[in-house]
Amino acid sequence: MNNSKRNINSKASLVADHASDNKRINWNRFLSFLVYAFSVYTSFAQNITGKVVDENNEPMEFVNVVLLTCTDSVFIAGTVTQKDGSFLFEELNAKNGVVKLTSIGYATQAKLVPPTGNFGTITMSPENIMLGEVIVKSHRPITAIKGNALVTNVENSVLAHAGTANDVLTQVPMVLGREGNFEVFGKGTPFIYINGRKVQDLAELSQINSSDIKNVEVITNPGAKYDASVKSVIRIRTKRPQGDGWSGTLRAQNGFQHYFGTREQANLKYRTGGLELFGNFGYLNGKFQSRGTNDMLTRGSSLMDQLIESNGNMRNNEFFGKLGFSYLFNENHSIGTYYSNGFSRQTDRGGYNSRILIDDVLTDEIVSSGSNKYRNYPKHSANLYYNGMIGKLGIDLNLDYMWKKNRVNMLNDETGSFSGNTVVNSFSNNHNRLFAQKLVLSYPLWKGEIEFGEEYTSSRLKNLYKTDAMQVNDAFSQVDEKNTSGFFQIMQRIGKFELSAGVRYEHVDFSYLENGQMKTDQSKTYDNLFPTLSVSTMLKDLQMSLSYTNKTMRPNYEDLDGTVDYINRFTLEGGNPFLKPEKIHSIEFMGAWHQFFTQVSYSYKRNPFLNTTVPYDESGEIKLLTMENFSHIKRLEAFIGSQFGFGIWLPKFNIGIVKQWFTVDYGNERKKLNNPIAMVQWQNAIHLPGDIWLNIDMQWMSKGNEGNSLLESSSYLNAKLYKAFCKNRFSVTLEANDIFNKSARDFTFYNKDVTLYQKNLSNNRSFQLTLQYNFNTTRDRYRGRGAGQSEKDRF
Questions:
Q1: For residue 356, which of 298, 412, 312, 413 has the smallest C-alpha distance?
Q2: Which of 747, 741, 748, 737 is nearest to 762 (CA)?
Q3: How does pLDDT run across 10-33, given as a tens digit for each residue?
């Protein structure tokens, strides 16, 4: 029995050993197969690279590059070219594959993948499109996504014939406004950069010809590289400079907006070798109308209703000039500096008629007249920069200084049918100065690059206010602020994805003095971290981007000024030095497919500061217009656009919507201000015989809530004719804006004890004729990017 058991166990052991040997043999064979298969695959997997240039051998950015199978054109991967025209597909098995390259205005190319995977340089050829006897390059600009930016190509598109940078921006998706007064849909006023340099004088946009612009980028969720208060950025890139000697632009713009106005400009450059000298000069003269009505309801022990009709005009005279130079040692090193100066005089004259009702009983009728005389002393502004490359390390250093001063003399003469006569004289003197320094370093790392740097700004604002009004005291206030920040940002390309992450640290020291005494309860110190993250990819012809930012919005210095200004005997105006910065969390998605694109974002704002009114005296009858922090606002924004071409007609359609969730105290209840605002745009470019361009643009915005206001609907219809002569050296533009005078937005302002209805009756209809002459046009070589930009805007 024991022997048989031992025999059985012995046989079982032999069987188990044999099975174990077979498993080891099979596993070894499987591993050998994997190694073989991997070696076979990697023998075909390779990096596929190339560089795309145009007919002038200039690198082409944002060219769509799609990798397909050769036999059945199945999609493998997709990307777009970088700033230097390069593209890269990493470790792909593309034996016998085909690369297809497309860009609006250029002939599509399809090329077999070479055995090495390196295409070298690929030259794109312009695609001429016949329009009768007229030949133009391309039907329309292409809008693409690059990282977290929406990019509109201008070169070789209809936008190259728009006129100036101002005219181009009115046609760029998500950009609203005109003549320097631009905003990004749902994001407010943007920072505008030209070739990396911050635009300080928005008149500069009218100095750039549309034919010299390469592309425009709109960033609605800026990363850690930008100040934490920057909510949107517009970046304009121009073409490569050409030619030495003298060049310049002479521009005269004259028109009517109820009154006549004129703007004259001369921009001159002299270039020899690496040296460029430049000077910009201008003069602005105009008279503008101001008409409107206000109905202000104030709830207290009684209901007071102020019905105000105002009528006035403003005369403005302004001179500005800018001188500077830049020197390009070579492509890796450049220095430069500029100094600008400008001064203006402005006079407001007008008056108002007011009826005061208390509990629906007429208690007074006031007739007022007055004038405000503004004198802006010469504003001094200077920039010094170095831009260079040491090895692979990029260096961008900027130093900025600004000084400005203005004086305002105010006269208000009121005569009441029951209250008698009151004459109030007021005087205000404002003095601002700023010093800023910014250093940005960049270095290639792995499959991308890193950027890191620091920024320091020191700013001071002084305000002296004197008045003989009994309700208001004289005051002298001073604000000192020092902002020290550092940032780090990394970008990497991993397969089909481009990833970017960054963080910004800011230390703010804010001091407030009143009549020479430090106000410790109003002085503050902030230490904040602001992270950002974005990811973008391309799937076939679909480009997508998702980003998150943490931002802040600081009050303007005017909003922080505790000085109280006299408006009338019932209404005063002043800032609030107790204001806290607004904090914003935002997440955003962007997508582009063929001629369609979309943007959707959601934001949460904590401590938003908005206009409000509070009682000024014990009786509560006198109200102070000021700013206050509210709890929070939730906000959703969506935008979709498309671009088409039908022969000589090139239409564009844009639709947007903004909806907020916000509740305020109103009377004895809580009022929801959640009504959305919709926007519809229809823009048309028509290429007429004789190479004349006709633009007809329409926009409508619906009634809805923004902040603690209800905005009424508005619309406009604009038309423009543009004709260039002598190979674009001379151009004539004739335009009519807001033809039906419907662009003004009336609003209702809600506060706990005050309701304000405001109606704008000014004439916004305008007609303009612009004559421009360019000679030996070249691109500005100045590479200074500036420092302390957010502080300058707060001034």
A1: 298
A2: 741
A3: 444 444 444 444 444 455 555 554
Specify the range with the lowest mean pLDDT, choosing from 372-376, 584-588, 686-690.
372-376
The token pair that represents 134 in the structure block: 């007229």
Is pTM, for the whole model, over 0.85? no
**Residue 88: burial class (beta carbons within 10 Å; 0-12, 13-18, 19+):** middle
DSSP collapsed to 3 states, 17-34: HHHHHHHHHHHHHHHHHH
CA distance 248 to 437: 31
For residues 494 and 446, the answer to whether their CB atoms sit within 8 Å is: no
pLDDT band at 789; cut points 50, 70, 90: low
In tens, the pLDDT along 684-729 reads 999 999 989 999 999 999 999 999 999 999 999 999 999 989 888 8
Distance CA 337, CA 276 (A): 11
From the list 90, 77, 88, 93, the residue with the least C-alpha distance to 43 is 93
Beta carbons of 159 and 558 less than 8 angstroms apart: no
**Residue 591 contacts residue 598 (beta carbons within 8 Å):** yes
Pairing of strands 571-574, 609-615: unpaired
Is residue 83 within 8 A of residue 59, CB to CB? The reply is: yes
For residue 394, the model assigns a pLDDT of 94
**What DSSP letter does each residue of 523-580 carry, written as one string?**
-EEEEEEEEEEEEEEEETTEEEEEEEEEEEEPPPHHHH--PEEEEETTEEEE--TTPP
Tokens encoding 304: 């007071």
Region of residue 560 (left: phi > 0; alpha: psi -120 to 50; beta: else): alpha
Query: Which is it for strands 596-606 and 632-643: parallel, antiparallel or unpaired?
Result: antiparallel
- Partners of 627 in the β-ladder: 611
Whether the pLDDT of residue 678 is over 90: the answer is yes
Alpha carbon distance 230, 487 (integer Å)? 14
Element (H, E) at 350: strand 333-358
SS3 assignment, position 338? strand
83 by Cβ neighbours in 10 Å (0-12 / 13-18 / 19+) ranks as exposed
Classified as helix, coil or strand, 53 is strand
| Residue keyed to tokens 């298969």 | 37
Q: Rounding to the nearest 10 degrees, give the CA dihedral for residues 206, 211, 215, 220.
A: 30
| Sheet containing 45-53: order of strands | 86-93, 45-53, 118-123
Q: Give the separation between CA 148 and CA 220, rounded to whole angstroms.
A: 8
Integer Cα distance of 491 and 442 in angstroms: 11
Residues 410/428, Cβ–Cβ less than 8 Å: yes
Helix (H) or strand (E) holding 16: helix 2-44
Place of tokens 């390009």: 328
45: helix, coil or strand?
strand
Reported as a single tens digit per residue, the pLDDT across 59-98 is: 888 788 888 887 667 777 778 788 788 888 877 766 678 8
Q: How far is CA 769 from CA 210, 249, 261, 617, 733, in A?
A: 17, 16, 11, 52, 6
Residue whose structure tokens are 């055995």: 115
> What residue spans of 333-465 are helical by DSSP H?
none
CA distance 449 to 211: 32
Helix (H, G, I), strand (E, B) or coil at 793: helix
Q: For the chain, state the CA radius of gyration.
A: 32
Asked if residue 156 lies in contact with residue 138, where contact means CB atoms within 8 angstroms, the answer is: yes
**26 backbone dihedrals φ, ψ, rounded to 5°:** -65, -40
Would you state the pLDDT for residue 29? Answer: 56
Token pair for 761: 């009756």
